[in-house]
Design brief:
This protein has helices at about 10-15, 30-35, 60-65, and strands at about 1-5, 25, 35-40, 50-55, 70. The chain is of the alpha+beta class. The N and C termini lie far apart (about 30 Å).
């Protein structure tokens, strides 16, 4: 699962990568409690990129979904880069 590290990116910056997608927040602690590892995997276009690695059973997916805090709903317009 691909995520952005919040200290390196804002919700608005994250939303620009996939126009029309929503942005939610989960914590590293939640991921660790669900036996997920977090790997910092920056890309040329995204210095905040990380991967959440581990088996995502239906229960794990449900826990991640239910604990997520919606920051920007899907379809939220993002302003273009200046």
């Amino acid at each position: 699962m691909s995520v952005n590290w919040a200290i390196l990116s804002s919700a608005e910056e994250t939303a620009k990568a996939v126009p029309g997608a929503g942005v939610a927040s989960i914590t590293a602690g939640l991921c660790y409690r669900e036996n997920q590892d977090i790997e910092y995997t920056p890309t040329n276009n995204n210095s905040a990129h990380c991967d959440v690695v581990g088996q995502k059973t239906k229960a794990v997916k449900r826990h991640l979904r239910d604990a997520a805090i919606l920051l920007l709903p899907p379809g939220q317009p993002t302003s273009p880069n200046p």
